[in-house]
User: What shape does this take?
Amino acid sequence: MTVAARKQLEQGPIRPPNEARSLLLRITRNCPWNRCMFCPVYKKRKFSLRTVDEIKKDIATAREIADELYEMSSRLGVEGRVDDRVVGDVFSCPEEYSDSYRSVAAWLYYGTNACFLQDADNLVMPVDDLMEILVFLREKFPEIKRITTYSRSRTVVVKSVEALKRLKHAGLNRIHIGLESGSDRVLKFIRKGVSSAQHLEAGLKVRDAGIELSEYVMPGLGGREMWREHALETARVLNGINPDFIRLRSLRVPRRVPLYQEMEKGIFTMQSDDMVVEEIKIMLQNLNGISSAIKSDHIMNLLEEVEGRLPEDKEAMLQVIKRYQALPETDRLIYRVGRRGGAYSSTSDLEADPVTYGKLNDLVADITRREGPDAVENFIRDMVDRYI
Assistant: This one.
């Protein structure tokens, strides 16, 4: 085994889609709460804090890898740039280079100068320890412009604004929080372990500290039973926080999550795609007096184009929804299959590519003819659930 193959950084299982090109460093392992009924990620895994020394060792290793990649670049005659030739050499020889080596190479290649700290709730770490890690990271990688982490509202509310300001001063730029819903009934049902009031308090503390805040909301989480309350109460809490980003993550319920058992019992009824679109419309209509950026950056969201800045892009986002709702039922079904299969990203693609439209139309007709209309819904469900 080569020296490069032995160099490893510990990395967690997930990161936000917008952090796909960031340097990934694991600060804690798994989730300290780990009871949310919709989440499949950390179940049956024990939470633990990594030590400051462990983390600093990983940061130092990442620095060594980056320096070696720059040296490789110089030897290849590309003036220290980590370009196609450098990453091509690294990725074409998996026996010579570790996964961590490839991860750092990809980060340098994309040049995002961003770092995401894994796993689910790094603010559970003592503030002084996290500050020490942030300072060390900034010293080793002065080129990093943004450091981001996940946290939970329940964790943030017990922090003082002054403590959060210290983290910002040490280099923490953005916090991602899973708000999911502003409805206390929904939050209790899904075992989120937090109230809407705590969501509001935590969000305001992050904003007061001057740290960018990204709040995730989950259309569909109220099911058919609480969908309107879910939409309206989520808008209410977001209006109170005014986060920098509102990120849409439409609910999916694969068999391996606890919420699936509630569906089997008939306690929870999954919303249809069309009703989730209506729910997003109601929420969006009730977002008022804030300047958040709406992001729909995940394949689980049916309408990727529902993106923009409030308030100026609000009507344009609502028009995206209205265009979808105005489509004939057949075209909505074809679009849903195309979107989940990766062929479509906009309803305008239906007309722009008649060849793909024809193939999808034939596919829908064939599945319906052979297995019945419910089979198409099952086909769509299986496609989208693979992304979870």
About this structure: The first strand starts at residue 23 and ends at 26.
